[in-house]
Amino acid sequence: MENLREALPEIITDTLPGPKAKEMIERRSKVVPNAIRCGYPCVMERAAGAIIEDVDGNRFLDWVGGVGVLNVGHTHPELVEAVKKQSEKYFHGMFNIVTHEGYVELAEKLAALTPVKGDEKKVMFANSGAEADENAVKIAKSYTKRPNIIVFSGAFHGRTMLTMAMTAKKAYAVGMGPFPDGVYRAQYPYLYRKPEGMTDEAYLDECVESVKMVFENASPAEYVAAIVLEPLQGEGGFIPAPIEFVKALRKICDENGIMLVADEVQSGFCRTGKLFASEYWKEAGCEPDILATAKSIAGGVPLSAVIARTEIMDGVTPGTIGGTYGGNALACAAGIKVLEVIEKEHLVARSNEMGAKCFEKFNEWKEKYEVVGDVRGLGAMIGVEFVKDKETKEPNAALVSAVVAECAQNGLLVENAGIFGNVIRFLAPLVMTDAQLEKGFEIFENAIKKCM
Questions:
Q1: 215 near 224, Cβ under 8 Å?
Q2: Distance (Å, rounded) from C-alpha 163 to C-alpha 155?
């Protein structure tokens, strides 16, 4: 596997998918619902670091990382060993029935590291990002004894009934209503697409005012349990929340007894140049009350977490949170090891280093190509927005689809995002080598030039 970890992408079959991959994709189509879509030609055989080798021997550079799950890379040797070691002791013990040390140890570590308000913190574990977000809302409601929440345009929070209601893009929820009541939406700052002629300051004021208008038009402030937002919107287009906007939300929450909830499902575990993106909030004096996280928490083993100060967590009615697999022993063993790897391999610094190289390269393209409209993000969580031309900023989803497909044909896996489907996101494993990063730039730029 070590040679794979250092390898560069290479396509050896005459066509993609190759013959074995084509056969597997055909098998998939017969037994997996079409609604679980996949347009990529890659069928995994093995993977290491940032490289996936498919069943035909083709090698792909993975800039999707399981959609933000693989910050420490595929099959990190220490992670593999930690899960193996735990598997020889026990797989599972439901935490309402038996206590196991892994849950407690990982909770201790996250409580010490997470930038939420308060000195004493507690942690609950679930299995997915949607579960973490839903439980964060349940915790806020139970603690405040209030029924409603405020979410934002561009938000993605999951596909459970509550999180589909919270999610802005209703393509993720076609035909699924009626949705839970008490979910109200305000305007998230999308600076690249602010009204023409408006200053950033005036636009941010308008976005803050949209939150206050929820109190007037939908739910009085005293009935709002939480304001939930992503520090850097993922599916919405990799749009960072301006810190002045977050400060204003913190002030509104403090004045009205509302919980500020950070959805760090995608942005956690070094992706943004900090362990959590909310650390930028904390530095500015506006940290959240509750933080939900998942994805890269356990390197690919299903796990998620909700962290808040003890007062909030202990204000929850017993029986309303928890679940069979939450804090599964194998997942907790992986989670503990992920934190060790992050520290040992300096992945916070690596995120900033990779991000700087990406910003430099992508901004070069912004100057060179009329179709590259905006480059934005934090650390190594970066979005490149494609337009038909810079003046009109008309979204160019067709070009993005073509670039994604062309990249895949040349051994680079990238994924789109954005409310218009016109953003390509960078979510590569932070253990990727410099040579792999440079090769990815080459394939990506060639695809842009070919598809323009």
A1: yes
A2: 10
Q: Among all chains, which residue has been given the structure tokens 């609604």? A: 35
Q: Which two tokens stand for residue 317?
A: 């009615």
> Quick one: angle between helices 200-217 and 243-256, nearest 10?
30
pTM of this structure: 0.97
Of 3.90.1150.10, 1.10.443.10, 3.40.50.300, 1.20.272.10, the CATH number of 2-62+346-451 is 3.90.1150.10
Amino acid identity for residue 7 in this structure: A
Cβ atoms of 241 and 276 closer than 8 Å: no
Nearest to 297 by CA among 261, 260, 326: 326
* pLDDT, tens digit, 9 for 90 and up, residues 389-429: 999 999 999 999 999 999 999 999 999 999 999 999 999 99
pLDDT in tens, 90-125: 999 999 999 999 999 999 999 999 999 999 999 999
C-alpha distance from residue 439 to each of 21, 103, 249, 428, 434 (Å): 24, 40, 41, 13, 9
